[in-house]
Amino acid sequence: MNFSSDSLHDLLTAWLGGSDWAYWVATAVVMLLTTLVIWVVWRLLDRWRKALHRWIDAEGRGIRAITFQEQQIFSEREIARFLHRAINYLWVAVRILLLLVWLNMVFTQFDWSREVALYVVSFVVTLVSQIVHSIVSYLPNLAIIVVVVMISRLVIHMVYAFFEGIRLERISLPGFYPEWARTSFGLSKVLIVAVTLVIIFPYLPGSSSPAFQGLSIFFGVLVSLGSTSVVANIMAGIVITYTRAFKVGDRVRLSDTEGDVIERSAFVTRICTNKNEEVAIPNAMVMNDHIVNFSAQAKEAGVLLHTTVTIGYDVPWPQVHELLQTAAQKTEEVLDDPEPFVLQTSLDDNYVAYELNAYTRKPSGKAKISSDMHANIQDGFREAGIEILSPHYRANRDGSEKAIPPADA
After folding, report:
1. What is the pLDDT of residues 28-61, one digit of tens each?
2. Fewer CB within 10 Å: C terminus or N terminus of the chain?
3. Residue 4's pLDDT is what?
4. d(CA 105, CA 32)
């Protein structure tokens, strides 16, 4: 491809008489016309560039921020800055192209520079044609990638709708519980994405090159060496989900921590304690210790609260049973059915140990319910004039006063 003006030069030379001075005059005219045309095009394009910049900066230009749900990804100013830079880069490319055209038109007028000009133009044209050819030849692979990605997105959407129906109990499967839906969808999504990557990998540009394969192996080794604890926590989280050990909102005791489960993620389980402290426990640690779930039976049979008091042998045990049961029945959130009951757990040297057991359906309020029940026990035994010998009390039977608060206390 040649951008020279030999025909115009020859025409001017012939019109001026064909002499040597006519040749040089024609050369000067062609160079001047070429420079003038390039300069006019340059000025017009520069004016359009400035007009585009002004339009981008103008109010009401129609540029809107890019957001995802409630999070702003790119602001209007960032988008405007990107457009300004894109226009400036395009303007640099256009100026280089105009300069190449001008050099070709000028240098082809001289025998000593014609070969250089033709070589530069040929090099640029060959480079651009190779780039265009590579892009065009890659379009079939790109089409395959787009189709595979679209199909995988459709499959993910269908799987999500299926598991969402299970979670909302619009779909029921025997032996499959609604709380498994989110974890099952996450596992299915990871599997679908992995299969998609395996399918489209051979169609990626440079996927067959040794450098690309070596880089993939390098990152694979890094991930495998550095993700041991991560994988352990993820697998533990999956096991916890499918064993139905607990769910969000349950009152549990994990290791030495007791509280309400507020979050169960792939890596950690978060618990809010009675002191309103948020404790994050890695799932692997949860799996390595026993789990006590106070809410598992709370809705149906109720969870059992218990406390122990020690009373001397001089107090009849039926009276102690009655006082303890009455104290439990006066406590709010304690169930009447099943009714509270008392067990005599030990006969010690100086006293009998009585264990009061009461049912409640609010395990998250265990601390407050137990506190109220203890207060009712103290009031009941004080009114009955009975000493509570807990945890230890030495009685001197020589006329000492009993360890009972006064009636007006």
Report:
1. 777 777 788 888 988 999 899 888 888 888 765 6
2. C
3. 42
4. 10
How far is it, in rounded angstroms, from Cα 96 to Cα 81? Answer: 23
**Tokens representing 305?**
């609260």
Altogether, the residues listed in the chain come to a count of: 409
pTM value is: 0.55
SS (H, E, C) the chain: CCCCCHHHHHHHHHHCCCCHHHHHHHHHHHHHHHHHHHHHHHHHHHHHHHHHHHHHHCCCCCCCCEEECCEEEECHHHHHHHHHHHHHHHHHHHHHHHHHHHHHHHHCCCHHHHHHHHHHHHHHHHHHHHHHHHHHHHHHHHHHHHHHHHHHHHHHHHHHHHHHHHHCCCCCECCECHHHHHHHHHHHHHHHHHHHHHHHHHHCCCCCCHHHHHHHHHHHHHHHHHCHHHHHHHHHHHHHHHHCCCCCCCEEEECCEEEEEEEECCCEEEEECCCCCEEEEEHHHHHCCCEEECCCCCCCCCEEEEEEEEECCCCCHHHHHHHHHHHHHHCCCCCCCCCCEEEEEEECCCCEEEEEEEEECCHHHHHHHHHHHHHHHHHHHHHHCCCCCCCCCCCCCCCCCCCCCCCCC
- Residue for token pair 């910049």: 53
The model's pLDDT over 262-274, given as tens digits with 9 standing for 90+, comes to 888 878 888 888 8
Q: 346: which residues sit within 8 A by CB, 6+ positions away? A: 352, 353
Is 108 exposed, middle or buried, given 0-12, 13-18 or 19+ CB atoms closer than 10 A? buried
